[in-house]
Amino acid sequence: MDADEPLSSAIAAVIEIGRAWPVSPEARVGPHPDAYRTVGIVGGGTAGYLTALALRRHRPELEVTLIESSAIPVIGVGEATTPEIVRMLHSPHFLGRDILDFYRRVEPTWKLGIKFQFGPRDFTFPFQRGRLLESKLYDGHLNNQSLAAMLMATDRGPVIRDEEGRVTSLAHLVRWAYHLENRRFVRYLAEEAAAAGVTHVDAKIAEVRKTPDGEGVAELVTDDGRRLSFDLYVDCSGFRSLLLEGALGSPYRDWSSTLFTDRAITASVPHDGTVKPYTLAETMDAGWCWNIPFESEDHRGYVFSSNALSADQAEAEMRAKNPRMGPASLVRFRSGRHEHVWKGNVVAIGNAYGFVEPLESTAIHMVVLTLENLTTHFPASRHDRGVPESLNRKVGQRWDALRWFLGAHYRFNRRLDTPFWRAANAEANIDGALERVALFRERAPLSYRTSLFYTLIPPEFFSDDHSFDTILMGLDVAARYVDPVEAPRTWSRHRATMLRATSGAMPQAEALRWLRENPEALAKLASDRAGWIHRSIPA
User: Fold this and answer.
1) Residues 155, 274: contact at Cβ < 8 Å?
2) Which residue, 119, 325, 524, 533, is the most exposed by fewest CB within 10 angstroms?
3) Ramachandran region of residue 198, left (φ > 0), alpha (ψ -120 to 50) or beta?
4) Other beta carbons less than 10 A from residue 128's beta carbon
5) What's the whole-model pTM score?
């Protein structure tokens, strides 16, 4: 600036600089002579292909190869998700996939949240948050806490037709997730990965050869004799954990003392044409049963403990409640996580690292959060250890928080008096949630104040106060409530406004048809900068 310019000009410039400089700039780390250049992903499925797409989009300098065997079939079950996958797929800040193309090829349905048939009465757990306490105190339940909760209670979607026939979509306002048919979704991801330049190798891994010090993977040998070597290996091999556990021996932390279930019976069930806008979690004798709705049918799954029931007994109980149920399949799983998400030159994503159980639909949710951390903080050099150690701590903390949150569902659900549920109520280990439960009992809801709980772990959807409030209040855990924020008259007015809007909302099947016929409205969901997809930020 010229010394002769007025001081007022300098002051104005300083104000502009003061606004700009505190905002963290988007900067990339410069090239390093020992940078990662090649990545080999072991395993396809949702975790493998999302990893491949994320790396190609955010680390385009990497050569990415995905190794999977076409002899291993994709499990064709319904997949319930959280809003994180919507943001990951369609936000320009992450994968930026075209939403119209996605709906055409994958045919998803909307999920506004979870409806629990747990506790003394059914309750909704919507992704759109509102006024928990006023709904509980004034109405005696949680199903009026937000517009999404009201839509869930009436099996409607966030598309409203008024008396004049005009249609307004509120899908940019009401957070939602997807119900996905797994085969269609994985096929879509595989096709997108190929278009993004991911090299595909169709082979089984016959041998994993370690580095001389035993701390990393040197190469993979396929069943047809090929030898594949990469700078970084990503283990997406599912529960086998071929690289992280099998080759490198990362210790496994078993969580069966908190989460007793280890099996699921899955099947398709015809519906009456009602495509519910939520995932259902129904209490069963030895666990719970999901319902994931699609336009053609419902996908159901009984998650149970093999210590309480045999697979035949579980299927019989499920068929008694779903007499039109089709052929059933058995899925085995374990609940827990490994000590490392990154060990040596191996990163594990998805079930290869950890799994809790299907309650709350967190499998893809945790894949997304891990990939956001990995791609955002990718190390510049193969010798850098700060990022791997930080990821091990941060990802581990998120998984631990999820364990305790899910454990509370079992500890306090007293809908059925069966041996399984008596054991869960008495024995389910929720040590990591005890402080939160104690605070809730003394001053609920926790989310109606600045939390005392967060000291080291930043909250995300399944570890924050509002989520705990919803579950504990829905399960009727005894608590001393704070004063409501809204007076009865104000609450009554707000509730009436939302119920009036709900009365014009379309059933989900009709709303999805309307969107297909009005693609500009669907496209606006992903492009609207005022909408929740753009407002969401990485966790």
Assistant:
1) yes
2) 524
3) beta
4) 21
5) 0.93
Neighbours of 10 (CB within 10 A): 12
- CATH 3.30.465.10 correct for 38-110+179-257+336-385: no
Determine contact, residues 280/243, Cβ cutoff 8 Å. Answer: no
Q: Which two tokens stand for residue 379?
A: 């190390």
Reported as a single tens digit per residue, the pLDDT across 411-441 is: 999 999 999 999 999 999 999 999 999 999 9
For residue 293, give the nearest of 520, 160, 112 by alpha carbon. 112
CB 315 within 8 A of CB 327: no
**Nearest alpha-carbon partner for 169 in 538, 535, 527, 536:** 527
| Single-letter amino acid code for the residue at 95 | L
Measured distance CA(504)–CA(493) in Å, rounded: 18
Find, among 178, 122, 129, the residue nearest to 149 by Cα: 129
The phi and psi torsions of 478 (rounded to 5 degrees) equal -60, 135
How far apart, in whole angstroms, are the C-alpha atoms of residue 271 and residue 294? 9
Residue 112 corresponds to which tokens in the numbers above? 């506004």
What is the Cα gyration radius of the chain? 25
- Kindly report whether the peptide bond that precedes residue 488 is cis, defined as omega within 30 degrees of 0: no
Predicted confidence at residue 459, as pLDDT, reads: 60
Q: Locate all alpha helices (DSSP H) within 206-321, ordered by sequence.
A: 311-321
